[in-house]
Amino acid sequence: MSSGADYKGEFMLADRRYCYPLTITDYASRYLITCDALSTTKEVYAFSVFERAFKDFGLPRTIRTDNGVPFSCCNALYGLSKLSVWWLRLGINIERIKPGHPEQNGRHERMHLTLKNEATKPASENFLQQQARFDDFIDYYNTDRPHQALAMQVPGDQYKKSPRPYKGLGDLDYPIHDWTATVTSCGRICYKRRKINLSTVFAGQKVGIKQVSDKIWLVSFMQYDLGYFDHETCRLEPIENPFSPKVLPMSPV
């Protein structure tokens, strides 16, 4: 099971506040899992939306997004964000489209066009009323609106919940590494009283440290290798980005 997630372009409500709809869809069936009227794209609010969706619908294998916040952070190691690190911890693969290629998430973009035309024009008076319209749209989109790509069935006819239940985060263990370090709130690990910068997106996470040659150490997060540092500089040297945007086929609408 794969999902797509994105923010539909912001728009102004009648009360002059901006609305940022966060949407999640099931890739195969086009089922609209959620559409939340948010006042910002800050990740703290996105966490709540995704956690509720995971509790209600289970965990997807993969989430496909663009490279914008809060899905990615251009200043962080490998463009990760706290949200995407959380997904990785839950066993969800992150799949990023190439910058400037929204067609690689075409099914989701097509849904956004329908959402815009049918649930935002004109905009509602306030967030409460706009959310009620989004809720009505979800029901209509999933149960009443047939899709040509689904042989004129509705998404609800084909959608099945993920068999992977949401159980929160388990412990991280690195049995084949030499030692385990917890990343500080400043995004660092300590080695012999010296500080090595990783990224604040890993704050509170455990990473594994393994010596690979004389005075050279490898830093890993889960099954992903982040980079190397040596005894002298204690500076992490990144390696090939394991989370770089993949060349994806155009997503049929």
Largest β-sheet summary: 6 strands, mixed
Which outline best applies?
elongated
The chain-level mean pLDDT equals: 93
Rg over CA atoms, rounded to whole Å, is 21 Å
What's the CATH superfamily of the largest domain, by name?
Ribonuclease H-like superfamily/Ribonuclease H
The top-level CATH class of the largest domain is Alpha Beta
Element string (H = helix, E = strand): EEEEHEHEHHHEEEEEEE
Classification by helices and strands: alpha+beta
Structure characteristics:
253 residues; alpha+beta; Nucleotidyltransferase, domain 5; six-stranded mixed beta sheet; five-stranded antiparallel beta sheet; 13 strands; elongated
Describe the structure.
This protein is of the alpha+beta class and 253 residues long. The chain folds into 2 domains: 2-158, Ribonuclease H-like superfamily/Ribonuclease H (Nucleotidyltransferase, domain 5, 2-Layer Sandwich); 179-238, no CATH class. The protein is 23% helix and 26% strand. The protein contains 5 helices and 13 strands. The protein has helices spanning 43-57, 82-89, 106-119, 127-143, 155-158; strands spanning 2-7, 11-12, 18-26, 32-38, 62-65, 93-96, 179-182, 188-191, 194-197, 206-213, 216-221, 224-230, 237-238. The strands form 3 sheets. Strands 1, 2, 3, 4, 5 and 6 form a 6-stranded mixed sheet that branches. Strands 7-10-11-12-13 form a 5-stranded antiparallel sheet, with no helix packed on it. The chain has a two-stranded antiparallel ribbon with strand order 8-9. β10 and β11 (216-221) form a beta hairpin. It is elongated and about 65 Å long.
